[in-house]
Specification:
- The protein has 196 residues and is an all-alpha fold.
- The protein contains ten helices and no strands.
Length: 196
């Protein structure tokens, strides 16, 4: 099996999920997005579930690569200001270059509500955020207990759908029209809540 072609098909499946949603994910649509002969996706991923698995695995690989790049080789953000900058950057990625990946991931999460095997495949990706944000809070010298990590992670996850839809009134109401301010305010709120 040609791994480059397989990866190209998995990337195409992500593009299809981002563009057309779960209902649009077909072998034919993936072939078209990958610009390969009709039937190629079916040869690599014989069923729709196999296509979903391939897309989920690719999303997980991309997520791990992004997390590794953000972690870098250093100890992490040295203070709250650096962490706020990193969080604002993550949110900008969601609304910008990472948008297709995140849309595809959310479509996969919706499919996972009806497919326990897919939920199990995606679970480590979502669960790892709690640990990662606890690490970042600790590196920045902020309260990093489970409650703080949960509050930060769930608030960031809750912001994602609003960033993806980009509705101006909602973005303004949520404070997401200024991502730098949003990240600073979120950290202040998380830290204040931990100190109560």
């Amino acid at each position: 099996m040609n791994q480059d072609r397989r990866d190209r098909l998995r990337d195409a499946a992500i593009a299809v999920l981002a563009e057309a949603g779960g209902r649009g994910l077909t072998h034919r649509a993936v072939d078209a997005a990958a610009t390969v002969p009709t039937g190629t996706a079916k040869n690599y991923f014989p069923t729709r579930d196999a296509l979903l698995r391939g897309a989920a695995e690719r999303c997980a690989e991309q997520y791990r690569a992004l997390a590794a790049a953000l972690a870098g080789t250093g100890p992490g953000p040295a203070d709250a200001a650096q962490l706020a900058t990193l969080l604002a950057g993550l949110l900008r990625d969601v609304a910008g270059p990472g948008r297709p990946r995140v849309l595809a991931y959310l479509e996969l999460r919706a499919e996972a509500a009806r497919r326990p095997w897919l939920a199990a495949l995606l679970d480590p990706v979502a669960a790892s955020d709690f640990t990662a944000f606890a690490h970042l809070l600790a590196a920045a010298g902020l309260p990093a207990g489970p409650q703080s990590a949960r509050a930060l992670t769930l608030a960031l996850h809750g912001a994602i759908p609003h960033l993806l839809t980009g509705a101006p009134a909602t973005l303004a109401a949520a404070g997401l029209d200024d991502l730098d301010r949003f990240a600073r305010d979120l950290l202040a709120s998380v830290c204040e809540g931990a100190n109560r």
